[in-house]
């Protein structure tokens, strides 16, 4: 029976994505090469270039497919606890070396749209939770939940991006406490 080319291609593609993430974590973006990814994945460079034009799109796809985005904690029903947990997950994601290296590399590759694309699901989840809190009276009805979600995530992203202070769960909790005081009136 002849080998299944589709299965082999999927196996090669996954090996390439894993290799790209492992190498960017170990070497950083500037030292990452397509040659190194090909060697680690056990494929030829031409296989990689057939699917991706450069290391930026390769890393983006690897991160979206294999990265931590999309892993959401369950809600517990308490708004403050839910928001603290959500921001702590963001802090943990941003603190992972692989996430940090890939995000910074991709920011370099696509400055305008990257964070919006990667983090929009997280922002939408926060908006949904805040709307639910409005319905039960935990948040004032006149609060613009989109702006509130920006306030919550913006403070964490700003600290991560500029590295002005250490990013920590305590920082996430302080952001939630401050924003909730404003949202509750």
TrEMBL record:
<protein>
    <submittedName>
        <fullName>TetR/AcrR family transcriptional regulator</fullName>
    </submittedName>
</protein>
<feature type="DNA-binding region" description="H-T-H motif">
    <location>
        <begin position="33"/>
        <end position="52"/>
    </location>
</feature>
<dbReference type="InterPro" id="IPR011075">
    <property type="entry name" value="TetR_C"/>
</dbReference>
<feature type="domain" description="HTH tetR-type">
    <location>
        <begin position="10"/>
        <end position="70"/>
    </location>
</feature>
<keyword id="KW-0804">Transcription</keyword>
<keyword id="KW-0805">Transcription regulation</keyword>
<keyword id="KW-0238">DNA-binding</keyword>
<dbReference type="Pfam" id="PF00440">
    <property type="entry name" value="TetR_N"/>
</dbReference>
<dbReference type="InterPro" id="IPR036271">
    <property type="entry name" value="Tet_transcr_reg_TetR-rel_C_sf"/>
</dbReference>
<dbReference type="InterPro" id="IPR001647">
    <property type="entry name" value="HTH_TetR"/>
</dbReference>
<dbReference type="InterPro" id="IPR050109">
    <property type="entry name" value="HTH-type_TetR-like_transc_reg"/>
</dbReference>
<dbReference type="Pfam" id="PF16859">
    <property type="entry name" value="TetR_C_11"/>
</dbReference>
<dbReference type="InterPro" id="IPR009057">
    <property type="entry name" value="Homeodomain-like_sf"/>
</dbReference>
């Amino acid at each position: 029976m002849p080998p299944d080319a589709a299965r082999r291609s999927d196996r090669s593609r996954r090996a390439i994505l894993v290799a790209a993430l492992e190498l960017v974590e170990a070497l950083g973006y500037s030292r990452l090469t397509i040659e190194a990814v090909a060697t680690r994945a056990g494929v030829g460079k031409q296989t990689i270039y057939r699917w991706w034009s450069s290391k930026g799109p390769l890393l983006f796809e690897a991160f979206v497919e294999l990265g931590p985005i999309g892993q959401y904690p369950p809600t517990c029903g308490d708004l403050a606890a839910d928001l603290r947990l959500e921001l702590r997950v963001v802090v943990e994601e941003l603190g992972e070396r692989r996430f940090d290296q890939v995000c910074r590399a991709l920011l370099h590759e696509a400055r305008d749209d990257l964070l919006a694309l990667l983090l929009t699901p997280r922002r939408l989840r926060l908006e949904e939770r805040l709307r639910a809190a409005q319905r039960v009276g935990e948040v004032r009805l006149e609060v613009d939940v989109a702006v509130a979600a920006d306030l919550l995530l913006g403070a964490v992203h700003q600290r991560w991006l500029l590295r002005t202070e250490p990013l920590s769960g305590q920082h996430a909790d302080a952001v939630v406490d401050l924003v909730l005081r404003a949202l509750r009136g």
